Amino acid sequence: MTTQKLKDVVAEKIALKIIDGTYPQGAVLPTETDLLNEHGVSRTCLREALQVLSGKGLISSKPKRGTIVRPDVDWNFLDAAMLEWRQKVVPAEKILVELTAIRTMVEPEAAALSALNASDEQIEEMGRALDDMRVAEGRRTPETMEADVRFHRLMLAASGNPLLSGLGACVEGALRASIAVTSRPEVEDPIALAQHANVFDAIRDRDPEKARHEAKVLLQMTRELLLKAKAVA
Questions:
Q1: What is the pTM of this model?
Q2: Which residues pair with 68 in a beta bridge?
Q3: In 3D, which of 86, 80, 95, 93 has the Cα closest to residue 18?
Q4: Are residues 100 and 232 in contact, defined by beta-carbon separation less than 8 angstroms?
Q5: Which residues, 6+ apart, have CB-to-CB distance to 73 below 8 Å?
Q6: Residue 8: which residues within 8 A CB-CB, separation 6 or more?
Q7: CA 64 to CA 206: how far, in whole Å?
Q8: What is the full per-residue pLDDT of the chain (233 aa) written as tens digits?
Q9: Rounded to whole angstroms, how far apart are CA atoms 227 and 233?
Q10: Which long-range contacts does 105-108 make (Cβ < 8 Å, 24+ apart)?
Q11: Residues 6+ apart with CB under 8 A from 58
Q12: How many helices (H) and strands (E) in the chain?
């Protein structure tokens, strides 16, 4: 295993213990010696792993006190790695509720802004993603799932607001979690190709109000499927 991968493995192991409360907020982490013995890595690797966690707001170092678990108000919950880690600890239903709420708040406005700000090239890319979603006639396959994710991330990027684009990892996590649920045998439903096309057409036609409305309709369709699966309340 490379040093980079080993550092990430150690960071994840410690992060999971922070997120699940094994290392509570405000607690002092085990000493460096104890952590080295537990994880069997070099001092350099451990320190790099702790730097990763510090960058995500999980820990901070205090002179004469050691490494402290920070309050969760400081945690960077929208970080891609944090989203992945929390899905390993927090119940799937809770994660899905949180992510679906974020999508509902963000995507309709991103669609409206995309209708105003998207470049011709970005619209062409969204159109290609939509075409890739059609290749299996709406059936969910690994390829169409990736195209679905790409469509939504392109829409965020096309909004013209880098901060919205920065929520791409969060929206991607929500999409993948939703797709996993709606692909269950008892729920399985084809991709809402026609409604994705309605969103795309409104953006292409530079109609922000329609784009906002069609994105809301698409999200409501997703919510209804998740309700059917009893994945959200």
A1: 0.79
A2: 28, 60
A3: 86
A4: yes
A5: none
A6: 49, 52
A7: 59
A8: 665 689 999 999 999 999 999 999 999 999 999 999 999 999 999 999 999 999 999 999 988 889 999 999 999 988 889 988 998 999 888 888 888 888 899 999 999 999 999 999 999 999 999 999 998 777 778 898 899 999 999 999 999 999 888 888 888 887 787 777 766 655 556 678 899 999 999 999 999 999 999 999 999 988 887 777 666 65
A9: 7
A10: 106/156, 106/164, 106/167, 106/171, 107/152, 107/155, 107/156, 107/171, 107/215, 107/218, 107/219, 108/212, 108/213, 108/215, 108/216, 108/219
A11: 15, 18, 69, 70, 74, 75
A12: 11, 2
Indicate the helix (H) or strand (E) that contains 14. Answer: helix 3-19
- Gap between the Cα atoms of 154 and 123, Å rounded: 9
Length of the chain: 233
Strands (DSSP E) along the chain, which ranges?
59-62, 66-69
> 210: how many CB neighbours lie within 10 A of its CB?
18
Name the residue among 97, 60, 94 with its Cα closest to residue 75. Answer: 60
Question: What are the backbone dihedrals phi and psi of residue 76, each rounded to the nearest 5 degrees, phi first?
Answer: -90, 80
Name the residue among 204, 116, 208 with its Cα closest to residue 160.
116
CA dist., res. 214 & res. 76, Å (int): 31
Burial of 13 (0-12, 13-18, 19+ CB in 10 A): middle
Alpha-carbon distance of 85 to 79, in angstroms, equals 10
